[in-house]
Design goal:
By secondary structure, the protein is mainly α. The protein is about 45% helix and about 10% strand. It has three domains: about 1-275, Lysozyme (Orthogonal Bundle); about 285-365, no CATH class; about 375-490, LysM domain (Membrane-bound Lytic Murein Transglycosylase D, Chain A), CATH 3.10.350.10.
Length: about 500
């Protein structure tokens, strides 16, 4: 009976019901956590918050509730009239370059964070003390608004091991190609999208480019989530509108909630204590940590055993090592983050630890990536005048990288008459166009573009409706945005 009353109250209140009192004190924490499992289960932002419940770095299993039981008054879950939220956001808006306006959708996300996911938010507040000093220093270096640190909350709930259902990874949730474009290394053993330091720098660079492109922070945030191409499409479909709320109906579903969630996070982080939300802190703080260079391969298991430090905590501090192995070498050291105490133990015993690690890993070889048999129909393609690897890849529905691997090509240079082995995914109908069809451009991509000084992949893509920076990189065989140089000619995909 009590549970049904609680759920009934929670749903009616979330819909905006509020008596004349500005503040409601109604649900205890235990009861609100019952309600938390009842609503918003399919919301991607709530799902990211829920991922924090799986992290084993917060002490005992009851930590999500422990901070509430301070007194009877502190165990109450407050909520406020819309006018209170509106007034508080107006104050924050005056202090920020972002448009932090009240909106019913913003209120819905405030309720998610302050009522339906309170335990998870307490953990998030604790992780903020670990990551925000790093974020703020990087944003300041790039002369970006410090409020962008809250974007990582929307993206990953500050879980460095977060991975979305479509493969976005890390604190800043970079997709594979976007991460490569920002110069992040992604191999079988290392994924720098999950490196807190390197991914934060990449996010700052990416956000700077997006703001330069759109000149509006709300549109830049939308482009960060959906890609610049989708924002440009929404602008065209809206009839040329240029503000977020005007183009919002034309954005992908998740992006339509993205900026409201960002505004809500700004509010929650500034007014957490007004909602009786307090940090559940991890086992270490930012000032407790240091970084060391690792010059031999060594596993998390070995480090945990010899440094007397839990493997789960090593993984949290070093999420970029995908297999729990630091693949360091004298030629290319890898960096490891540990509490200062464990750093001291490592330095004292470094040579001994390397000898043990080398001996043990010699009997337990590192796992290798399984070979993948080529799919599709094997064809031999003779290169015609004007063709590029990108145009050939498009023609056969494969990637440039696949053609390079199949033919042992190190670069993208090909010559007329050269034969290429391709395992084509092109259908018979596509391979034999009707005679009545017009001949397509020789590049099979539509246009050739000459790179100018100051150009970026995103800037070039914004000039061609429906074209993404990622597709330009893939068609032309680029793995890193820094390879773009003035004077280059590149193919623009259709």
């Amino acid at each position: 009976m009590l549970a049904s009353l609680i759920l009934s109250f929670g749903l009616s209140h979330a819909a905006g019901f509020c008596p004349e009192n500005d503040t409601i004190k109604a649900l205890t924490t235990k009861d609100s956590l019952v309600a938390a499992t009842y609503v918003w289960e399919d919301d991607p932002f709530a799902a990211r918050l829920d991922s924090l419940l799986k992290m084993n770095v917060f002490g005992n299993g009851n930590d999500t509730l422990a901070f509430y039981y301070l007194s009877e008054e502190d165990s109450i879950v407050p909520s406020f009239h819309d006018s209170i939220y509106r007034a508080r956001l107006a104050v924050l808006d005056l202090q920020s370059p972002f448009e932090l306006a009240y909106h019913p959708e913003v209120r819905r996300y405030i309720d998610v964070y302050t009522q339906k996911r309170r335990g998870q938010v307490s953990r998030m507040l604790g992780l903020a003390e670990l990551y925000f000093p790093l974020f703020e220093a990087t944003l300041d270096e790039y002369n970006l608004p410090l409020e962008l640190k809250y974007l990582a909350i929307v993206e990953s709930a500050l879980n460095p091991q977060a991975r979305s259902r479509v493969g976005a990874t890390g604190l800043w949730q970079f997709m594979y190609w976007t991460g490569k474009m920002q110069g992040l290394e992604i191999t079988s053993y290392v994924d720098e999208r999950s490196d807190p330091i390197k991914s934060t720098r990449a996010a700052a660079e990416f956000l700077s480019k997006l703001y330069d492109t759109f000149g509006d922070w709300s549109l830049a945030l939308a482009a960060y989530n959906a890609g610049p191409g989708n924002v440009n499409k929404a602008i065209r479909r809206s009839g040329g509108k240029t503000t977020y709320w005007e183009i919002r109906p034309y954005l992908p579903r998740e992006t339509a909630g993205y900026v409201p969630a960002f505004i809500a996070v700004n509010y929650v982080m500034q007014h957490a204590e007004d909602h009786n939300l307090y940090p559940t802190k991890p086992a270490f703080a930012f000032g407790d940590l240091d970084t060391i260079a690792i010059k031999e391969k060594i596993s998390f298991d070995q480090l945990a055993q010899h440094l007397n430090f839990e493997k789960e905590k090593i993984a949290l501090l070093n999420p970029s090592y995908k297999l729990g192995i630091v693949p360091g070498s004298a030629e290319k050291p890898q960096f490891l983050t540990l509490p200062i105490e464990q750093v001291g133990v490592f330095i004292t015993n470094e040579d001994t630890l390397y000898k043990i690690a080398v001996a043990e890993l010699a009997t337990q070889p590192l796992p290798e990536v399984a070979a993948v048999e080529p799919a599709g129909n094997r064809v031999v393609h003779r290169v015609k005048r004007g063709e590029t690897l990108g145009s050939i890849a498009n023609q056969h529905r494969v990637s440039v990288k696949q053609i390079q691997n199949w033919n042992n090509l190190r670069g993208t240079m090909i010559r007329e008459g050269q034969k290429l082995v391709i395992y084509s995914n092109r259908t018979v109908a596509a391979a034999k166009p009707a005679k009545s069809q017009k001949k397509r451009p020789s590049t099979e991509t539509g246009k050739i573009y000459t790179v100018k000084s100051g150009d970026t992949f995103y800037g070039i893509a914004s000039q061609y409706p429906g074209v993404s920076a990622e597709s330009i990189m893939e068609v032309n065989g680029f793995n890193n945005a820094k390879t773009l140089q003035p004077g280059m000619t590149i193919a623009i995909p259709q």
